[in-house]
Amino acid sequence: QVQLVETGGGLVQAGGSLTLSCAASGRSASTAVMGWFRRAPGKAREFVAGITMTGEQTYGSRSMRGRFTISRDNARNTVDLQMSSLNPEDTAVYYCAAHRPSAPWQYWGQGTQVTVSS
């Protein structure tokens, strides 16, 4: 089991930056693949970024890769999502997620709201 708690959401102006953090706890936390998803109003959940225990990163789109950076601290079992050049289309509830190696995404945080004003 892995428990996830997100922090860092809020309101930011277009062009601004924001960092989301997620703290993981539980027996499998240190070896889990961790990542971020988001769900904008009226849209399906969208993969944002993921990172393995060894630091291998994946991003949901080229735009995300150029503006977002995912990182993790294995000693503290935390994963951060640094977001820059935010635009109103990035407004969404952002969810921290995790899964054991070779498993689907299976653990979810409660979500944190990010609102980008124009």
- Report low-confidence residues grouped into runs of 5 or more: none
From the helix content, strand content and strand pairing, which structural class follows?
mainly beta
Rg (C-alpha, Å): 13 Å
What's the tally of helices?
Answer: 1
| Termini separation | 40 Å
Which range does the strand content fall in? Answer: over 45%
Question: Helices and strands, in N-to-C order?
Answer: EEEEEEHEEEEE
Give the overall shape.
globular
- Count of strand segments: 11
Q: Give the mean pLDDT.
A: 95
Task: Report the helical percentage.
Answer: under 10%
| Major sheet characteristics | 7 strands, mixed
Provide an overview of this structure.
By secondary structure, the chain is mainly β. The protein has 1 helix and 11 strands. The termini are far apart.
Task: Offer a concise description of the structure.
The chain is mainly β and 118 residues long.
Notable characteristics:
four-stranded antiparallel beta sheet, 118 residues, 5% helix, seven-stranded mixed beta sheet, 1 helix, mainly beta
